[in-house]
Amino acid sequence: MNCRARGQIMAIDSLRLHFFFSCFFSLFKVVPSALQGSIPFYDCSDIGNYTTNSTYQTNLRTLLSILPSQPNEDNFRFYYLSFGQFQDKVNVIAFCRGDIAADACRSCVRASAHNISEVCPREKEAFEYVDDCQLRYSNKTLFGVVENEPTVYYTHPQFVSSSDGIQFNSEVERLLKRLRIRAASADSKFATGKATVNSQTIYALTQCSPGLSKQQCDDCLAMAIGEIRNCCLGNIGGTVLRPSCNFRFNPYMFYTPTADTLPPESSPPPVSPPPREGKHHKKSAVIIVISVVITTILIISSCIFLRARKTRRKPKNVNEIRLAESLQFDLGIIRIATDDFSDANKLGQGGFGVVYKGRLFNGQDVAVKRLSRDSGQGNREFENEILLVAKLQHRNLVRLLGFCLEGNERLLIYEFVPNGSLDHFIFDPIKRAQLDWETRYKITRGIARGILYLHEDSQLRIIHRDLKASNILLDEEMSPKISDFGMARLFAMDQTQGETSTIIGTYGYMAPEYAMHGHFSIKSDVFSFGVLLLEIISGRKNICFRNGKQVENLMSFAWRNWEEGTIANLIDPYLKDGSTSKIQRLIHIGLLCIQKNITQRPTMASVIIMLHSSSRHLQMPSPPAYPPPATIDSNMATEINWIVNRSSDQCGSSEMSINDVSISELYPR
């Protein structure tokens, strides 16, 4: 973790020496736990400074002075205050360890409030951790928000013997996972417990900021526990600390048992005798003392080095990969959740593999996407999909909960969406009766909002590239959630288009510039949305079909009826309850989205406005991208046949995919 603390170097009193230790150890992201409890950690953010005697400084000083006397009414170990307006608004949050008494907690918060203003004298955001409490202030909202940076590691200098290592590590992870579930469900967001391995007792605690929800706490601790492999697996003690949650384990009792202490499980049978007393312990003590002395000698020079240059940040992609790794599930847990991938739990199957329903130990239902071994997706592509989806947070996008990558198994674990995919409703002659006009309009707007988020509101511009009815899932309220980001591409916000030599997607939904030349942009997704919109209104798939003697697809059928003024032929009979003018307006919008000229297609921002404003004037559409199949010239037919690898019959009776596997390409080539 980068040491970003700033401030004038003063005389080395006890506080400044604390800062030196924090500065040095945070540079290497590892602190011997023998020092834990005596050396606080400070992180003075570099997001910006406030000026002396400014309103922000006055507000901050006011909050820090009154904070120790303002605990939460429901939890005396939790403090949260906010004061000021706009850019001068300050938010302060603090909480104590769940076993700390009220007086000790108040004293810890008071000392932290004083110390943090000394160590970070002008920063707009700062974070402090000591053994009994932690405090953070910022001009950003803090309550109910998960913050994962900075991350700090503390490690015990002693390692587990090689013969005991595997069992010890397994028990530590098992204990922490139990405590994670316990802490997330507790009002205090705190849990402690112990386990025994080969006569060695392990004590551990997990804690979240009390302002977090059960799900937020569980997610935060899951990511923190995922960091154990990077810091302290194999050590007999360690800590991973984040602003919103932390965990700690040691071979000695370091907490006071409370109501949230988890009863120990049955101890496993010992496989080796416990270590002897005497010389071994003396030797360990000598090793600890020597390590402390050596690191102390290096402190002054290390902090001078930090002042001489700005600490270099880790590459963004490395942090992203570590974020993804922190979401990893054990294969054994997923096998139990899905009843070993039984057919009874199968939700669906495609070229990528099979999706199963599962239930985790905490009772949460999940959807497990098990990629087939011959799907063509490598580990790099698999990691890319994780990196992308894990960052997306929107009500109309399916949320990724985690993944599993063990041996030949590659699994993605998503939130379970109970009503399945849109195609199971819209193309089913019986089920589509459940989709009245209001429901279909609601689904259309939700899909549009989800795509707009990908194009404009997420951190990077994201092109989905595989929008289709089977990738739209419906929750219990029939609200849509876009899924399957295996083929998505990331753009910089100022980038307008990209290209690829690998054409992968579903025929009928692909824009022609992508299908024939590999060019894609946000307008490619707009085209797919237009096709999807016509399918929602008509209840028909966009495939070739015979209309009397004429051969058509959905786009050409819609265009012909638009020109002939018989657009009612396109409307699903089940939509008789809907407003004809509104339904025709949606068809009009769909035709605008599938225009051949890419510059004439609207953006999703414009589509949202069109959907919500019936008074907004719509331009007249031009012909769709693909002409009716019966009029395709020989050159174009040859090119399309080569792309989609279809038979000589241009009109198949089912949806044809060029390649139905999930492949991610995060960075444009």
TrEMBL record:
Residues 38-142, 148-254 form the Gnk2-homologous domain. It is a single-pass membrane protein. Residues 260-279 are annotated as: Disordered. The keyword ATP-binding applies. Pfam families: PK_Tyr_Ser-Thr, Stress-antifung. Residues 265-275 have a biased composition (Pro residues). Its main location: membrane. It is found in: Membrane. The chain crosses the membrane at residues 285-306. Keywords: ATP-binding, Glycoprotein, Kinase, Membrane, Nucleotide-binding, Receptor, Repeat, Serine/threonine-protein kinase, Signal, Transferase, Transmembrane, Transmembrane helix. Residues 341-615 form the Protein kinase domain. ATP binds at residue 369. Residues 1-33 form the signal peptide. This is Cysteine-rich receptor-like protein kinase. It comes from Hevea brasiliensis (Para rubber tree).
